[in-house]
Amino acid sequence: MAAPKKGRKPSAQGRPGRTLVLTLIAMVALTGGMFLSGHTTPRLGIDLAGGTSITLKAKNEPGQKNAVNKTNMETAVGIIERRVNGLGVSEAEVQTQGNDNIIVNIPKGTDEESAREQVGTTAKLAFRPVLAGMPAVAGGEATPKPSPSTSGEKAEGDKKDKGAKAEPSGSTSADPPGSPSPSATTQGRAVTSGLAAQDETPAPSGSTNPGSSAPSGSPSAVAPEAPAAAPGIPADLQKKLEALDCSTAPARADAGSKAGVAKNGESIVSCDPESQFKYALGPVAVEGKRIKEASAAIDPRGVEGWIVQMTFDGKGADQFGDITGQLAAKPAPENQFAIVLDGEIVSAPSVSTAISGGNAQISGGFNQKSAEALGNMLSYGALPLTFEEQSVTTVTAALGGEQLEAGLIAGAIGLALVVIYLVVYYRGLALIAIASLLLSAALTYVLMSLLGPAIGFALNLPAVCGAIVAIGITADSFIVFFERVRDEVREGRTLRPAVQRGWPRARRTILVSDFVSFLAAAVLFVVTVGKVQGFAFTLGLTTLLDVFVVFFFTKPLLTLAARSKFFSDGHPWSGFDPKRLGVKPPVRRSRRPVAPLTDPKEA
Amino acid sequence: MSRLGELGAKLYRGEVGYDFVGKRTFWYGVSILITIAAIVGLGVRGLNMGIEFQGGAVFTTPKTSVSAGQAEKVAEEAAGHDAIVQELGTGGLRIQISNVDTTKADQIRPMLAKELNVDPKVINAELVGPSWGEQIANKAWTGLAVFMILVVIYLAIAFEWRMALAALIALIHDLTITVGVYALVGFEVTPGTVIGLLTILGYSLYDTVVVFDSLKEQSKDLAKQTQFTYSEVANRSINSTLVRSINTTVVALLPVAGLLFIGGGVLGAGMLNDISLSLFVGLAAGAYSSIFIATPLVADFKEREPQMKALKKRVLAKRAQAARDERVPGEQGDDEGDPQDVLPGEAQAAVVGPRTQPPSRGRGRGRPSGKRR
């Protein structure tokens, strides 16, 4: 403590100079980071910056007449909302229009491409058993027929080869010209029970949903429509598979969208975009909406790295148990099922045992990003409807620049008033307050700019207002502190001890009050969604900044200032003029009686 | 200024002060009246919910030369509700108007067409659902409820349950008033409003907590002295933190006033009005309630405790006693007290008291002279 000798409580003060320097270094580093990152302005919400508006039209699927209804639309809005606004701070808007349209507004600066992908194409998720697979690239000729493969991997406990690609299990297919069937999944993923090992319950699909549950069981019992085909798959399906072009991305997308329109009960062919295999898939075994929850996690046993865990609802658990039971008994690649998202295969893990109980995990070859992406798709991929992108158009800001401008002008005037008020009331002390306000304004700005690219944070007009108001609220902490110190001066103390003694009590008040604000923000952030969440985030952020600024800037600054002659002598313009503060018997009464006696109280 | 400083000092010392606690019934009455007015306003006029809450109609026009600003005015006139206008990439406009059903939309369309100088047929009208569906609104309510429960628990631990309860009542009071004003003024409720309202949650409590903190400190050793009743101490806490409360409120209100009157009023910015009005009313109500409602309520609750009742009895007895022996006859030997120092109960009720005001208010104050025990 270079601090005052007089300080009776040596501890309280720390080294104001050093704290200040550290704070300023942190500030400079953050600002530097902001410039380095190239995002020097906060990302604005759609109301201020405009953005992209996507209109989706819900389609009735053939065979499902009344799927487009209010409930389903609401569910879809909810799911899309969570997809485009996962963290709740990106200010995207989703609403229904008319009876069968959904409008998705995405603020400028969002990765539009990926947003469109998330919104438009991921419509329906399903699990389908793999009937056959072949490498996509090798083209038509060497197509293999999957099926009875001898690949040894099938059983083996739960984990699967990661190296599936490397060593395509040499399954020899029965029908078509032999070709290596991909033994494992595209990525060699495997599904295992999330719980322990399971009893095999290869019950016949006893689900109540005939269409979907029918598992393309053994080759013989394959897809219902194709009784004809040989051991493998129906001939027409085989032909389709061979004809399927998966060589280029557009072709794959095309294949996906064709597959996407198929009914649940139909078999499809589709590409696996990642690893260049193509598959023939049986009818839907489990619908995506049966997934209650899915998330990425690190394998608790530490063996598999990142995995995706999923939980099915009751019916889904039954269906999944059935299908895995059947698949497990088969050779690769038929022991795989594909997770199909709107016709495109997301992942095609293999199964080694029946998984009942509704918990399963997919492992093999994930990194954090891919695991989270799959987890997300599984969680929210179960849109109850199919959508078609109808129009994509840019829209201007609904509120326009003038609103933002008006807000900023008004905010500037308001802040100027605050400054005037502070100067008039606190005189020299106001300098410290204003410096603190500027620091917290700057920090808020920098953090918001950085959070734009980091977590998609976008600032809408309410948040701008909130930030302006928050600055006024930040000033509250200073006032609590200053008044405390002035109270101490009123008791007759000189400034240094007054600062030292005033701080612990002011600190408590500030912490208690800020905790309440932060609690409000945290609860709102956790419990709510959408704009409220974005706002709660802003509120929590400014509250934390408030605490930070008071502790690491205002307090040390005032401690330093208290050492200066200007302040400590109670210059009339310092804000600590004892006369002004109404110290009664000016100096006389001060020292003796009061100080020693009150002392013990605070400690 | 100087006078302000002087006043601050006097307030701090308790030389002047307003008897907030003593006059509490009056202020309770005021609050009840305001609350009733708010509830009646809410019941009779209801809230004017924006498009985000209840949906509305969206009109899409082909390319037009009319500016978004003009179109907004036209649309608002035609519909009587706030409109949101966006320019589309095609050069056309998307006009969203809340609270419009199909019939109404059919009436609005020709009006728009006329003003925008296009054929009504090319204006496409469709109803939109609320983007703030029930689900989101419900979640906001849940959040509010969870917050209130947690904050009551927290305040009960940090202070005590009576204060927590009083703070909660004050908070509900503030929210009711704010919502009531919205109903009465007829401003449209947008997400911005809700957000403003939620800001008040934290803020209203912030003020209250500052007063409570001082009260807690001042009433620490209350039972050990016989000079003041709890109510008197409570009143003094309010007075001694009054400057702080006023300053924090002024400082918070200034930017909001800027937004409301300059941003909203002069520059005519619609949404800013919505947000800043709810903030303005809420902040003002929050400051008011922390002074006039929350703390007096705590005093009320506290005075019901047997311990505090006993204290009051002792204090009164002591004062009667003092009155008998002392120069101040009838009353309770009241002087101005210096908050801090007095408390721990020195017995000098009528002592120092540099010319004070008449001893009327029923709260005793000792002029402390910095003596502590």
UniProtKB/TrEMBL annotation, chain A:
Keywords: Cell membrane, Membrane, Protein transport, Translocation, Transmembrane, Transmembrane helix, Transport. This is Protein translocase subunit SecD. Belongs to the SecD/SecF family. SecD subfamily. Residues 387-560 form the Protein export membrane protein SecD/SecF C-terminal domain. It holds the Pfam family Sec_GG. Residues 278-384 form the SecDF P1 head subdomain domain. It comes from Streptomyces uncialis. Part of the Sec protein translocase complex. Interacts with the SecYEG preprotein conducting channel. SecDF uses the proton motive force (PMF) to complete protein translocation after the ATP-dependent function of SecA. Residues 166-186, 202-231 have a biased composition (Low complexity). One of its GO terms (cellular component) is plasma membrane. GO terms for molecular function: protein-transporting ATPase activity.
From TrEMBL, chain B:
Gene3D superfamilies: Multidrug efflux transporter AcrB transmembrane domain. Pfam families: Sec_GG, SecD_SecF_C. It is found in: Cell membrane. Residues 114-303 form the Protein export membrane protein SecD/SecF C-terminal domain. Keywords: Cell membrane, Membrane, Protein transport, Translocation, Transmembrane, Transmembrane helix, Transport. The chain crosses the membrane at residues 26-44, 140-157, 164-185, 191-212, 246-269, 275-299. It is a multi-pass membrane protein. Forms a complex with SecD. Part of the essential Sec protein translocation apparatus which comprises SecA, SecYEG and auxiliary proteins SecDF. Other proteins may also be involved. Belongs to the SecD/SecF family. SecF subfamily. Part of the Sec protein translocase complex. Interacts with the SecYEG preprotein conducting channel. SecDF uses the proton motive force (PMF) to complete protein translocation after the ATP-dependent function of SecA. This is Protein-export membrane protein SecF. The lineage of its organism: Bacteria, Bacillati, Actinomycetota, Actinomycetes, Kitasatosporales.
